[in-house]
């Protein structure tokens, strides 16, 4: 059976929400039916975030990486433009 959430941080968030629902049920603030609906909504939202938002976020962050520049000569010095029109 596939797990609803693969990312550990999202699993901890879900665990915290379920714990909060349990405390509210013990205090009599929620009925069993309402708590079950909120727990189901929590699992569905976390699964969607895990399957859609997390991969999109990783892809967006991965596109901003700077690729290393090749070394121009054997000494390891790189040529660069200092903005004054001369190349060092």
Report what the structure shows:
The chain is mainly α. The protein has 2 helices and no strands. It has helices at 8-26, 32-62. Helix 1 (8-26) runs antiparallel to helix 2. The longest helix has 31 residues, at 32-62. It is elongated, with a radius of gyration of 25 Å. The termini are far apart.
Which segments are poorly predicted (pLDDT under 50) over 5 or more consecutive residues? none
Largest sheet features:
none
Amount of helix: 55-70%
The pLDDT mean sits at 81
Order of helices and strands: HH
Shape: elongated
Distance between the termini: 61 Å
Which structural class do you get from the secondary structure elements? mainly alpha
Q: What is the number of helical segments per DSSP (H or I, 4+ residues)? A: 2
How many DSSP E strands? 0
Radius of gyration: 25 Å
DSSP strand content: under 5%
What's the gist of this structure?
With 88 residues, the protein is mainly α.
């Amino acid at each position: 059976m596939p797990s609803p959430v693969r990312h550990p941080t999202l699993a901890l968030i879900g665990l915290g929400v379920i714990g909060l629902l349990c405390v509210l049920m013990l205090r009599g603030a929620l009925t069993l039916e309402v708590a079950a609906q909120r727990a189901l909504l929590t699992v569905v939202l976390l699964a969607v975030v895990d399957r859609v938002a997390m991969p999109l976020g990783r892809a967006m962050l991965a596109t901003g990486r700077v690729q290393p520049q090749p070394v121009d000569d054997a000494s390891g010095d790189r040529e660069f433009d200092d903005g004054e029109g001369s190349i060092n």
